[in-house]
Amino acid sequence: MNNASGVRVRPSIESLQVEYRKGNKKPLEDLMRAWKGIKALPPDDPNSFFMIGGFHGEPFRGAGWGSASYWGGYCNHGNVLFPTWHRAYLLRLEQALQSIPGCEQVMLPFWDETSEESLTKGIPWALTDPDFELDGEKIPNPLASFTFNRAITDNINGDDPNYSKPLPYVTVRYPLSGLVGTDKDRAATEKHNARFKDAKENVVLLNRNIVDWLTSYIVVKGNVVPTNVKRKFEQCLDAPNYTVFSNTTSAAQWNENLPEGAIPVVPLESPHNKIHLAVGGFDVPHGPNKGDFSPIPGANGDMGENDTAGLDPIFYFHHCFIDRVFWLWQKRHGFTQHLDVIAEYPGTNSVDAQGPTPGTVPNSWLTLSSPLDPFKKSENGKERAYTSLDCINIEEQLGYTYGPGSLEDLPKLSLAATTVPAGNSSKVVRVSGLNRAPIAGSFLVSAYVNVDGERHLLGTEAVLSRWSVQYCANCQTHLEVKAFFPLDQFSVSAVEGAQYDVEIHTREGVRLQTQPASPPVSQAVAGAAPQAAPKLFRLEVR
């Protein structure tokens, strides 16, 4: 489908569902046909889903698979190339879909994650139904999972190859586990998954979790405070520049330097991470109605880890929404023709957050001219790597745009709205000094406020990580996690005399709880009661 200007349109998957139910089945059927086609291609075919899905993380075809200097995959996280690398990635996947005969007009849809349907029902049924009728035949839904057509051996993690995937591995989502790389992993996964045999009930649990993540809130002394992912997506659209909008590392430094009374910025990567973990294996720590939403120990879905996320089809519908939010931010701030990177700022070095990708020199500065390997384009008869400069204007440079969806009509913040309203608290709960190297896999950092004997979740920062980060030599000095939880939604009186604490929710279901900390400054001590453990991170309220 093209718009009035002749630019091809990426619609929402929800709109394709509506058309399908109305009787216009071809758009959704063609999408299913294209996905079925690329998944059936031999794994060495450049258009196969196995090949393209593996660019994000495993099976680590670049320099990283055999060198401790690299993290292993091509994807960029925690740096300024995060939005543009994934933009080029989606384009490559879309080109593969269009290579399937009869699917030349197929465009990659976005899952509209902040639409009313997602807020009330969760993931669109086209991404979760187990079967789909195509050409009069019921087939396994190509968008619900991926059955590997080649085994993967984890060469990164030494004697503990958690991410190895023997045939016939099928990707899984919350509440299931997909860790099968070792005998110990397989035994734990079989025991865990035996508790979740009902596929339909698993989708119900998954959707309930997604809705909780998207809509959670707390009420403290009459203050209704949103703590949800929808709010984070809205807030990221007001990030003041591309550098801090683009990634968590740059935003953390920006927030560290803010003057008192300024509201911390939210980068695009923050809500992006939360959806990864919601689909891949984490509950909201405490839900909007104070129910028991503690993590399910052993839930290790593929979307929850950088190494495996790109091999679940839902990854691309999620990232299509992320790319759409990126485009909305560009239009909102007048950056459709150019982007600016703050030179040599945190988040602009190849070792920041994750370590360098294949083709990038360790400890080099990232710019808009940095290569977005492994994605190539032809220029003057020669092939070269895409750069961010090739991916700024999606309509003029890449030939696509986005159809209608949520977040389009949000009012732009005034300058006054970037500071704390009069009468509200200007304090921020700050977590720093947390080293993610010894933490196995992705995890959550959750902050709580204790008021009048009641404990309320202030917010959760999702850290999308890997099972064994310590194997990347160039990552070791760049693994500090910072998180900021502003109190600007609370009146000064509501949090007067309050105490604060922080929990780390790991993949293993372990909760590392701080000792309560009183403003303005306190040192957090993490451990399992009643025994105190070594200091794990700093907790400040100022």
TrEMBL record:
GO terms for molecular function: metal ion binding; tyrosinase activity. The keyword Endoplasmic reticulum does not apply. Transmembrane segments: none annotated. InterPro entries: Di-copper_centre_dom_sf, Tyrosinase/Hemocyanin, Tyrosinase_Cu-bd. It comes from the Bacteria. Pfam families: Tyrosinase. Gene3D superfamilies: Di-copper center containing domain from catechol oxidase (1.10.1280.10). This is Tyrosinase.
